[in-house]
Structure formats: C-alpha cells, structure tokens
Amino acid sequence: MAKDERRVYKIKTMNNISKEGLKLLPANFIASPDVEDPDAILVRSADLHDFEFGPNVRFVGRAGAGVNNIPIDRCSEKGIVVTKAPGANANGVKELVLLALLLSSRDVLGGIDWVRNYKGDAIGKDVEAAKKRFAGPELMGKTLGVVGLGATGRRVAKMGIDMGMNVMGFDPFLSIGNALNLDTRVNVVEDPKALFNKADYITLHIPYTADTKNFVGAELLSIAKPGLRLINIARGGLVDVKALKKFMDAGVVVNYVVDFPDPETMRLPHTINIPHLGASTPESEENSAIMVVRQLVDYLDHGNIRHSVNFPDSNMGICNSMGRLTVNHRNIPNMLGQITKVLADEEINIANLLNRHRVDWAYTMIDIDSPVHEGLREKILNIDGVVRVRFF
Ligand SMILES: NC(=O)C1=CN([C@@H]2O[C@H](COP(=O)(O)OP(=O)(O)OC[C@H]3O[C@@H](n4cnc5c(N)ncnc54)[C@H](O)[C@@H]3O)[C@@H](O)[C@H]2O)C=CC1
Ligand SMILES: O=C(O)CCC(=O)C(=O)O
C-alpha cells in the first residue's frame, strides 16, 4: 500500500509545552521548537495568524482552551486539523478567578505596597491607622454573574455558591454536558442585561471571536449595578476598554481585574493587570499537554480526530483491515459518492467507513481490503472540495 505517512514525525513545539505531555510521544515523533518542515505543531498562546504552514503540516494542537491565536479557516482550507484541550486548565483558571474576586474586593495589593514602602519603626501602630484605606467587602451574600458556563464558567459558578454567593449565569450556547454538570443553585438567565443589572461581581468565561469582541461595552455597562467589580481572565478583547474607562470614571465599575494587560489597561485606574497567569500551573500545563499529545498521536498514527475545532470528531480506532485512507473535504453534496466511486473503479473493497461533517468541513475515513497505489491519491485529491488525502 502506498503510505502517505512519513516514518519519523517532526513536531514543532511553540511556547513551553509540558514535558509530562511530550514524554508520551512515541520514539518516532521528534518534538522541538527548531524542527524544519514540521508534520504538526503544538502551541499555547503563540500567535499563528502570520505563520506560514508548510505542506506537511497536518495537525495543530492547542495545549489550552482559547483558539483565537490560530487561523482556523486557513488551516481548514489546507486540511489541517486543529484541536484543543477542553477543560484541561479550567481548574487553574477557576482558582485565579477566586484570587481576582478577593483582590478586587480588598486592596490587599495596595496594602502590601504600603508596607513595602513604609519607612520608620512604628509600623505596628501605623498599620492600624492606615488599614482602613485597604478595606473592602466580603464575597458572601453578594451576587456573582458568570458569563459563559463552559468548562471554566461552571466551575467558577460552583465556587461562588460554595463561597456563599448568589450566582447568576448566562450562556445561550450551553452544551448538554455543561448543563448537566452545572450546580442547580445557579440562576441561569436568558439575557445578559438581567445579570449586569443585579451582579456585584461579573466574571467572563467565553471565547474571543468576532461575535464576542467588546462583549462588555457601553450597552451592558449602562445598566450595570453601581459598584460593579469586573473580572476578565478570558481574553482582553471581550471588554471595550474605552467604554469601561467611562463607566469607571462615573463610579459604576469600581474595579477591573484582567489577565491580558495591554497599553490601554495599563493606564486604566482601579485596574489589576495580571500577566496571563490563568493556566500557569503545573497541573493545567500538564493536563493540557497530555490531552493534545494524545490527540496528535492518534491523528498522525490512525487518522482519528478528537476535540477538533474545525473538522468533525471521528474515531475508527485502530485499522484492522489492509489499510486506511482518510479524506479532509468540504461539506458539500456528493463527496462520499465521488470518493467511493474512485475506489469502486479500482475494484477496491470497503471494509468500514465513517463520514462526518462539522459546519463547512467534513472528514471521511475508509478502511479497505485491497492494496492501493499512489495514483489513487491524486484521483481523490482531484475531486473538487477535497483538501487532503492520507493513506495509512
Ligand atoms: N487566562 C487564561 O489563561 C485562560 C483563558 N481562557 C479563556 O477562557 C475561555 C473559556 O474557556 P473554557 O471555559 O475552558 O471554554 P468552554 O468552551 O468550555 O466554555 C466557553 C463557554 O462560553 C459559552 N459562550 C460562547 N459564546 C457566548 C456568548 N456570546 N455569551 C455567553 N456564553 C457564550 C459557550 O457556550 C461555552 O459554554 C477560552 O476561550 C479562553 O479564551 C481559558 C483558559 C485559560
Ligand atoms: O497556555 C497558556 O498559558 C494560556 C492558556 C489560555 O489562555 C487558554 O487556554 O486559552
């Protein structure tokens, strides 16, 4: 059988991918930041929008949750499967949200600074006079609004309940899995305005997309409860910083905690800028790397797709027939008919077949009982709408 697969796979690692994940790679997978002409890429937050994907790149694994740093459409056009690690770092983020809630309430950072800069020997006495400047409210009994009830948001919501808060949630696209795992005490609302109207604290846990850009802007802030503390450990672009500044100056928003500092947020008053530490725990880094490395090996070795954000999840396990071919193609009519006709014309018998689609893209896996030749790949690739063909 003509094999598409090269014996040695070259994996380009971008950012720091946990060794606990990388050590799961079989010996024929070479992972390094410096590989040339890679077969796959493992990435965290590095911006790939201007990255030139070579002809052999078949897979991009995001060791994390947000994929706004990856040009998904361009990858799909090239037949590159993009995956992520859902939920793998959610607990790490949840714990940072707890810290953010507390830091937004009491000016502990200001207090620590005051102590650090204190000159003299009477600190024991002077703290008692100074401390009122750093005081702030407790979380218990306050209302927490959680925007996005996915892997992180539902954990944050549960944490709020455990802290004695009244928790409201908003997520119009809530998956069944996340709904089933959501604490029943969370008051789920259908309009974010209901949440902005009531919440003392609001925390964002939604992806950054063209639809969610500036999600928090003048419209929602204009109905926010005065005294709002806003937590954004999701993505900077979810908040319209100019509008936020206006509502801070008016005393509506009293504090903003953001995990994505930029020149504008650095200049904002009442703002705590954190250097993107949401997932920076050994546990989150390991979980994320382990998850994407498993996806990577399964895709390169067997063509199985898991947790993809562009092609449909598809799993035929290990091939027990003579061979397997996989086709990444557009989700348009008659693709399966055309692909199977090429095989039928060559008198190749199909042992097993799976065809799935996801929005504009589809994936077909076919286990076959006969050997195939290299010319067959060209024939399938020549079908309009096919972007990649692999033989195993
Ligand atoms: N600061 C950091 O280090 C980290 C940041 N993140 C960010 O947090 C985001 C969420 O992460 P996860 O909870 O793991 O993702 P997730 O995919 O499990 O959950 C996202 C939730 O947002 C909901 N959603 C989408 N659009 C919405 C909208 N317009 N309004 C309300 N809900 C909406 C979805 O239905 C889904 O339930 C990621 O996309 C990423 O940008 C995630 C991990 C680490
Ligand atoms: O890998 C990281 O540290 C970034 C985590 C993150 O922002 C995400 O998973 O969306």
From TrEMBL:
Residues 324-392 form the ACT domain. Keywords: Oxidoreductase. Pathway: Amino-acid biosynthesis; L-serine biosynthesis; L-serine from 3-phospho-D-glycerate: step 1/3. Transmembrane segments: none annotated. It is an enzyme of class 1 (oxidoreductase). It catalyses: (2R)-3-phosphoglycerate + NAD(+) = 3-phosphooxypyruvate + NADH + H(+); (R)-2-hydroxyglutarate + NAD(+) = 2-oxoglutarate + NADH + H(+). The keyword Oxidoreductase applies. The keyword Plastid does not apply. Its EC number is 1.1.1.399, 1.1.1.95. Pfam families: 2-Hacid_dh, 2-Hacid_dh_C. PROSITE patterns: ACT (PS51671), D_2_HYDROXYACID_DH_3 (PS00671). Catalyzes the reversible oxidation of 3-phospho-D-glycerate to 3-phosphonooxypyruvate, the first step of the phosphorylated L-serine biosynthesis pathway. Also catalyzes the reversible oxidation of 2-hydroxyglutarate to 2-oxoglutarate. Belongs to the D-isomer specific 2-hydroxyacid dehydrogenase family. This is D-3-phosphoglycerate dehydrogenase.
